[in-house]
Amino acid sequence: MEERLLKTGWVTKAARKARISDSELSKAIRQVAEGKADDLGGVWGSNMAKSIKYKSDAFEAIHTSAKAMHEIGTIDKETMRSFDESCLVSPHALGPEAIKALRESNHVSQPVFARYLNTSESTVQKWESGAKRPSGMALKLLSIVQKHGLQVLS
């Protein structure tokens, strides 16, 4: 008999965010039904742990507790952001030479590099000259390109 997995919109969105495939979710549900697991926390926890980097195990415990409190509404978004800043690892800053070397190692021009990063050519020029420094999402994208190559963004 073919197994069908019916998911609510919330489960679909959460599974996609945690990078959990339908087959992994089906397997976890089957284990719960067979009494081999207490809950679905294992599949969620193992995939979420891959994407979030903490400064230490202690910070992971603190952040996990704060996140649970935020989900039930006992702490607000602003407080959660401060926990994020305190507990999560930030990407390392890249200097102008490192950004230029990264672009050149991927064999692309400034306009092409800018398009991959969803920014302007002038921004890439300013990063490479040292007039501006990437921050936030741009810095995270640069660290991803540094680790996995530019093809991961295509």
Automatic annotation (TrEMBL):
It comes from Rhizobium sophorae. The keyword Cytoplasm does not apply. Keywords: DNA-binding, Transcription, Transcription regulation. PROSITE patterns: HTH_CROC1 (PS50943). The keyword Transcription applies. GO terms for molecular function: DNA binding. Residues 99-135 form the HTH cro/C1-type domain. Signal peptide: none annotated. Pfam families: HTH_3 (PF01381), RelE (PF06296). This is Type II toxin-antitoxin system RelE/ParE family toxin.
